[in-house]
Specification:
heterotrimer, A alpha+beta, B alpha+beta, C alpha/beta, A: alpha+beta, Sulfite Reductase Hemoprotein, domain 2, Sulfite Reductase Hemoprotein, domain 1, 6-stranded mixed beta sheet, 5-stranded antiparallel beta sheet, 18 helices, 37% helix, 17% strand, globular, C: alpha/beta, TIM Barrel, 8-stranded mixed beta sheet, 20% strand
């Protein structure tokens, strides 16, 4: 994985001291809250429902054992013993004290971590494919490009006070695991007809109050030109994005108001000038320097080996491991979705336990996924039984990756100051309702995504089944959406109808799932059935009880 | 409807409630204002604590029969409903 | 209000003139609206002219006249509105404006280093920012990742 050189290390140290001075001035009253807020957000610090919340960046989801141990240490020393993996490959602490945050950041800096730009109206921490470097079908490892973008975006002098946040995802696989088309800008690493590798760039995706999928603005950008092109997009956004209404300030509104042709022209004009100046060219030497850090581990020449079958181990291998590009290896997903648990939460013991697992099996890194799980990218098939056993002891061996109980959800009203309704409790009830593993396998690929408010941190627009919590006069209600997808077949879910009460929503979800089981053709997954039949049969299933009640 | 007044302490973020011209940490101890005038007066007085950088984000919320009306304020007063071992509920 | 120019406290020779006020002798700053109306007269005065731009006014409105103007004032109506960062950059690069670019209005200590980087070389300091603090702001981050209008050597260049 990437290692800081002296410049990166000094940068993060100085950034920490810069924030320490901001906190000092805030506590002395030299900055008022309105002034301080954008600066604390740019360092990942929120004030939430109960306390401050610190969001620590896990750049493109990659973590080492020493970093995991530091995350565990911070949970113990400064928080309440646990953290929460988010839908953007970050980890959040729910209870830090403002006065401690500079010290937390200083400790993080010792393991090459930070909280830079995990919030605020700036270029957010870049995300990537959690199977990067291991997936069979990828063009190349996307993380060197993500790292290049991380550096370019860190304290960008021109783009730190944008109209709204700006999120960039990078993928190199035809199977999109980054929700690329829901990003303000997406970078797809592709190979063109001449066999050259470059970037397809899209802009204008986003969730929130007005969801949009991005569209392609450049089919093929050459490798040296990537940062110049991204800088051009950001300049158009900074100059022309709306500033009068925060719900209309994202680039998605500008992009879809201007339209693709005008947007392309605006970007191309800036791109031409930036490229001509030449100062943002990324030379081959710098690309090679970064790529060297991401060189694959020394894979052994292993024989093809049958996967363990049967029993609890077999169940886990079936759902929680994926094909690896190297023979004899698998990609392992560590589910953070125990039945009835809080999606994404992890205790300090578990963080330490996973660090020990990495050491004991000579695994050099871990990944955080936007689906709020962890991933061991390179596991020898022969180690699967032992790893399963260790994860079982840690309470991290739930065999549900990709199944209906592997749902994602935002913290909702239990923690979040913006939320209108709880989302974790709904996730827990759905998880318990569908706990039966045979039933989960029968249902198959079905992604449920739950948000506690319109800001959509739980990606409800992109769920095969999406749930959106709303507030009706202080009472929690839940809207049901169907047909969304964050993958390469991206689509925006549609709201079925009036919301359900807290005690009705899980039944409604179950009726929709039962309708699917009745209506599906052999081998047809949930999303395909909804696309084939439209929403009507599912709408009538969802509201069946209510209609009977009204008769 | 009756109201109480809440804010967060600047230095550590702890949720506070207004009682008799100062702040306490639990809702049970909080003043309940039957009249809008007394609630508004407390809110105005709280602004001084904002100006002195002691608290942030003070606001009034509705209470009825000793309990907040909204789910949000019930959770804020107790802690996350999904983890009884953290938040104010853990200190009781 | 202290004026910092090229890193040091400086006297301000300009008079900021309201749209309906009579032009005084000496260097003046006028709004874009007034510049458009009085352009020829202002440029014929043979004394430095500055134009003040609101956050929603692109300096491209001054294209063609950038060689005739001595000063462009970029106003911060509120510090969170970051458009002037791009306007300064655009003045320095696309318009190759070589005169003074002055920040005025609601900007904060924490933005000074960014402002210098994108091409501002003068600052009408708000009361909260003393000249001493101004200097401190420039020293917070030693090195930078991005090339910008200030031409500062980037970390990539330092890596060789």
């Amino acid at each position: 994985m990437y290692r800081y050189d002296e410049f990166d290390a000094a940068f993060v140290r100085e950034r920490t001291e810069q924030f320490r001075f901001q906190v000092e001035r805030r506590l002395k009253g030299e900055l008022n809250e309105d002034q301080f807020k954008p600066f604390r957000l740019m360092n990942g610090l929120y004030l939430q429902l109960h306390a401050y919340m610190l969001r620590v960046a896990v750049p493109y989801g990659t973590l080492s054992a020493p970093q995991l141990r530091m995350l565990a240490h911070i949970a113990r020393k400064y928080d309440k013993g646990y953290g929460h993996f988010t839908t953007r490959q970050n980890i959040q602490y729910n209870w830090p004290k403002l006065k401690d945050v500079p010290d937390i950041l200083a400790e993080l800096a010792t393991v090459e971590m930070h909280a830079i730009q995990t919030s605020g109206n700036c270029i957010r921490n870049v995300t990537s494919d959690h199977f990067a470097g291991a997936a069979a079908e990828e063009v190349e490892d996307p993380r060197p490009v993500a790292e290049l973008i991380r550096q370019w975006s860190s304290l960008h002098p021109e783009f730190s006070f944008l109209g709204r946040k700006f999120k960039i995802a990078v993928t190199a696989s035809p199977h999109d695991r980054t929700a690329l088309r829901y990003h303000d800008a997406g970078v797809e690493i592709v190979q063109n007809g001449d066999g050259r590798i470059g970037y397809r760039i899209s802009v204008g995706g986003g969730m929130g109050r007005t969801p949009y999928l991005s569209y392609v603005v450049a089919e093929f950008i050459e490798k040296p030109d990537l940062l110049a092109y991204l800088e051009a997009i950001l300049r158009v956004f900074n100059e022309s994005g709306r500033r009068d209404n925060i719900y209309k300030a994202r680039i998605k509104i500008l992009a879809h108001t201007l339209g693709a042709t005008a947007m392309r022209e605006r970007i191309e004009r800036e791109f031409g000038e930036i490229k001509a100046a030449g100062s943002l060219d990324v030379p081959e030497t710098e690309r090679a320097r970064i790529e060297a850090y991401f060189a694959p581990p020394a894979f052994e020449d292993l024989p093809d080996m049958a996967l363990p079958q049967g029993g609890a181990l077999g169940d886990w291998v079936t759902s929680n491991t994926h094909p690896h590009r190297v023979r004899g290896y698998r990609i392992v997903t560590i589910s953070l979705k125990p039945i009835g648990g809080v999606p994404g939460d992890i205790s300090h013991e578990q963080l330490d336990g996973v660090a020990e697992l990495l050491d004991d099996f000579a695994l050099d890194e871990l990944r955080a996924s936007h689906e709020q799980n962890l991933v061991l990218p390179h596991v020898r098939i022969e180690d699967l039984p032992a790893i399963f056993e260790r994860l079982t002891v840690l309470g991290l061996a739930t065999p549900n990756a990709g199944l209906i109980t592997d749902l994602i959800c935002c913290p909702g009203l239990d923690y979040c100051d913006l939320a209108n309704a709880r989302s974790i409790t709904i996730a827990q009830e759905i998880s318990k309702r569908f706990a039966d593993l045979a039933r989960q396998h029968d249902i198959g690929d079905l992604k449920i995504k739950i948000s506690g408010c319109i800001n959509a941190c739980g990606h409800h627009h992109a769920g095969h089944i999406g749930i959106l919590g709303v507030d009706k006069k202080g009472v929690e209600y839940y809207q049901l959406l169907l047909g969304g997808s964050a993958a390469e077949d991206a689509s925006i879910g549609e709201i079925l109808g009036p919301g359900f009460g807290e005690h009705e929503i899980v039944d409604a979800v179950e009726r929709v799932v039962e309708a699917y089981l009745t209506l599906r053709q052999p081998g047809e997954r949930f999303l395909a059935t909804t696309r084939r039949l439209g929403l009507e049969p599912f709408r009538s299933a969802a509201y069946e009880e209510q209609r009977h009640g009204a008769d | 409807m009756a109201q109480s007044l809440t804010a967060n302490r600047l230095i550590d973020g702890v949720v506070l409630y207004w009682r008799g011209g100062d702040w306490v940490e639990t809702l049970a101890e909080a003043d309940v204002f039957a009249e809008p005038q007394t609630a508004d007066a407390a809110f105005a007085a709280a602004k001084d604590f904002v100006a002195r950088n002691v608290v942030v984000n003070p606001y009034l919320f509705e209470v009825k029969d000793g309990r907040p009306v909204s789910e949000r304020e019930i959770i804020r007063a107790a802690g996350p409903s999904v983890r009884q071992d953290v938040g104010k509920q853990a200190d009781v | 209000m202290a004026l910092i120019k090229n890193g040091a406290v400086a006297d301000d020779p300009y008079t900021d003139v309201a749209d309906d006020a009579v032009l005084p002798d000496g260097p003046v700053i006028v709004s874009l609206q007034r510049f458009r109306v009085d352009r020829d007269g202002l440029l014929a005065r043979n004394t430095p002219v500055g134009v003040r731009l609101a956050p929603d006014q692109s300096p491209e409105a001054l294209a063609g006249d950038q060689g005739r103007l001595a000063l462009v004032v970029l106003e911060f109506a509120k510090f969170r509105d970051g458009r002037p960062f791009s306007w300064a950059r655009l003045l320095r690069t696309r318009l190759t404006f070589a005169g003074e670019i002055r920040a005025s209005g609601d900007f904060l200590y924490d933005q000074i280093a960014f402002l210098v980087r994108v091409g501002f070389d003068a600052f009408a300091l708000p009361p909260a920012i003393t000249p001493k603090l101004f200097q401190r702001a420039l020293g917070e981050m030693t090195n930078v990742y991005q090339p910008s209008a200030d031409g500062k050597t980037t970390i990539r260049q330092l890596r060789g």
